[in-house]
Amino acid sequence: MLKEWITAGDQRLLRSSRLGDVAATIGPLSRADQSEALQAMRLLLEQNPAPLDRRERPGHFTASALVVNEQRDRALLLHHAKLRIWVQPGGHADGNANLLAVALSEATEETGISGLRIWSEAIDLDVHRVDPPTEDAHLHHDVRFLALAPCAAVVDPNHESTAHRWAALEELPSLGVDPGLQRMAETGMALARKLD
Prior knowledge:
With 196 residues, the protein is of the alpha+beta class. The chain has a single domain, classed as Nucleoside Triphosphate Pyrophosphohydrolase (Alpha-Beta Complex). Helices cover 26% and strands 27% of the residues. The chain has helices at 19-26, 35-47, 99-111, 179-194, and strands at 5-7, 59-68, 75-80, 86-87, 90-92, 117-119, 124-130, 138-148, 161-167. The strands form two sheets. Strands 1, 2, 5, 6, 7 and 8 form a six-stranded mixed beta sheet that branches. Strand 3 and strand 4 (86-87) form a beta hairpin. Helix 1 (19-26) runs antiparallel to helix 2. The longest helix has 16 residues, at 179-194. It is globular and about 45 Å long. 35% of the residues are buried.
């Protein structure tokens, strides 16, 4: 696949049920800081019967997007209503092995921004524990992408968030974001500044 910005309606965003598509998506991330997450995700694909199903335990795949503004100096954070923390938009795969499509769909739905563009290659992998109030604690194997908001984007978050804000990298520690989000933001913002 070419490395490029993709918009809604592109053929590469069609739903897939092939687990090989997940393996192909995570495979290129061979940075040293990604090796542990990459290994955990490969094991999930090999050992779990339904790794794309949100009911799968001890964990399952999710996809998310770091949404950056047109100036590429701020990322959009959402204050998650259930978890009560600042997060990037994202969500469950729900059977869709096209995690690029999942990330763009979730980012669009959760931010209300129309016209998002998403970079065709994943930028980060993260395995983290979530403990929602109405579910058992479990692991999210999150495949993360970079999305670019259009000029003068209007943010209209859905019911899953209680607040939103555009934050610069240096603001993230004071917002209590986890190390995985900090790492993804650093990687994503650096990449965004290099891309056309």
